[in-house]
């Protein structure tokens, strides 16, 4: 059980990182340094951003649940 939670934790962490990096930059941050500010008006749609937000939130919930589950299993296992 602990191994399965650790595997899900690593996979959800990687997917969460990818989803956060896929978000469109807002403002003059690092994304505008590499030309992201110019393309921000031309690319992407609001439906895609909403779905990406939902997927990111689901990954955060799975990640947090794995951390809490691993902590409870290791605390009460012996």
TrEMBL record:
GO terms for biological process: protein secretion. The keyword DNA repair does not apply. One of its GO terms (cellular component) is plasma membrane. Its main location: membrane. Keywords: Cell membrane, Membrane, Protein transport, Translocation, Transmembrane, Transmembrane helix, Transport. It holds the Pfam family SecG. This is Protein-export membrane protein SecG.
């Amino acid at each position: 059980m602990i191994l399965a939670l650790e595997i899900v934790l690593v996979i959800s962490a990687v997917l969460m990182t990818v989803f956060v990096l896929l978000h469109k930059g807002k403002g003059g941050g690092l994304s505008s340094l590499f030309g992201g500010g110019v393309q921000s008006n031309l690319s992407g749609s609001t439906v895609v951003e909403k779905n990406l937000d939902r997927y990111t939130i689901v990954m955060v919930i799975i990640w947090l649940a794995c951390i809490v589950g691993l902590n409870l299993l290791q605390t009460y296992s012996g």
